[in-house]
Write a structure and sequence with these properties.
Blueprint: H1 8-25, H2 32-39, H3 43-49, H4 53-64, H5 76-91, H6 99-106, H7 110-137, H8 145-166, H9 172-189
Helix pairs in contact: 1-2, 1-4, 2-3, 4-6, 4-7, 5-7, 5-8, 5-9, 8-9
């Protein structure tokens, strides 16, 4: 005997409520009960889908985090600048401050960590596409998977550090420097 079919409309309401609470109150203040109340649902509706707050937030971010554009500017350097600009938009949001607690909870919740990894991989797909185009244009040679992973860290790490640890706003000059530094490393590492 099959179970009840999933109610996708309810799931979308729950994710929208979680996003709203995350943005307005932050991760620490968010609870599964609050999500249910804001969505006009029962607590069991939430707990049936997500057993932990970290899992719910992983799925919420997958659904609501601003997308990384599918950019193609025609040159690796400007593709990197476009990618960094999209990352900066997400890292500049006020709700990011609360994600430190969520990142800590990921260590204790393998299901949430798996969902986060899948989201991160999806968000990095456009960077991988930009690198492939740069190889096709002859700007660089092939980049290993390990180097592509390091490139993603070189691009996002400084934004995360500046926003969460240094607490300094992200500026156009800083974003340009991050993109230029990554471009310089990439062209030295994978020069034609």
């Amino acid at each position: 005997m099959a179970g009840r079919p999933r109610d996708l409309e309810l799931e979308q309401r729950l994710l929208a409520a979680a996003w709203s609470l995350l943005v307005d109150k932050g991760y620490e203040a968010l609870s599964l009960s609050q999500v249910a109340a804001q969505a006009g649902a029962h607590r069991s509706d939430v707990y049936r889908r997500w057993s932990t707050k970290a899992q719910l937030v992983s799925d919420t971010l997958t659904e609501h985090l601003p997308a990384v554009s599918a950019f193609d500017t025609g040159a690796l350097s400007s593709d990197l600048e476009a990618y960094v600009a999209d990352l900066a938009e997400a890292w500049s949001s006020p709700w990011v401050d609360g994600l430190v607690g969520w990142l800590a909870d990921l260590r204790e919740d393998s299901d949430a960590a798996t969902a986060f990894d899948a989201m991160a991989k999806g968000r990095g797909r456009n960077l991988g596409n930009a690198i492939e185009r740069a190889v096709e244009r002859g700007e660089i040679t092939a980049v290993s998977g390990e180097d592509l992973h390091l490139l993603a860290e070189l691009l996002e790490g400084p934004l995360m550090h500046r926003r969460l640890l240094s607490r300094i706003p992200l500026t156009e000059d800083h974003l340009a420097a991050v993109a230029a530094t990554a471009h310089g490393w990439l062209t030295r590492t994978a020069s034609p």
